Amino acid sequence: MTKVLIDTNIIVSAALSDQGTPYAAYMKAVTYPYRGVVCDQNIDELRKVFNRKFPSKIYMLDRFLAIALPVLQVIETPVLEIEQEQTVRDIKDRPILRAAINSDVDILLTGDKDFLEADIEKPKTMTAAEFLGYGE
Predict the structure, then answer these.
(1) CB atoms < 10 A from the CB of 31, how many?
(2) Structural domains in the chain?
(3) Reported pTM
(4) Which of 2, 52, 110, 128 could make an SS bond with 7 (beta carbons 3.0 to 4.6 A apart)?
(5) Tens digit of pLDDT at every position of the chain (136 positions)
């Protein structure tokens, strides 16, 4: 099975609307032959983003997580830094890459340019649109 770590920005978009590319990519990532993965830091970030940007829509996040968490594999974010994460500009994103590498994730599904522009071989970084066309 191909493990796909779904980054925070994809989940935010999917939680806000079941229309569009991020939601379709999320659905593909949690459907066989893929295994959807999030790290504990993603979940913390989700709550912070919704509290800051969408406080009146926290119920949408709670509803989405109630459905999503039973089908997602939640992985821990290792504390110790690794060499590969130095290619990611944003220091706050590095633990997510660390978790993905530590859990042998195959694809990092993201809209974050700090991941997309980093020189990362594995996991393969893809936008939602790229992932939708992947494997076809």
Answers:
(1) 11
(2) 2-133 (3.40.50.1010)
(3) 0.93
(4) 110
(5) 999 999 999 999 999 999 999 999 999 999 999 999 999 999 999 999 999 999 999 999 999 999 999 999 999 998 887 788 788 888 888 999 999 999 999 999 999 998 898 888 899 999 999 999 987 6
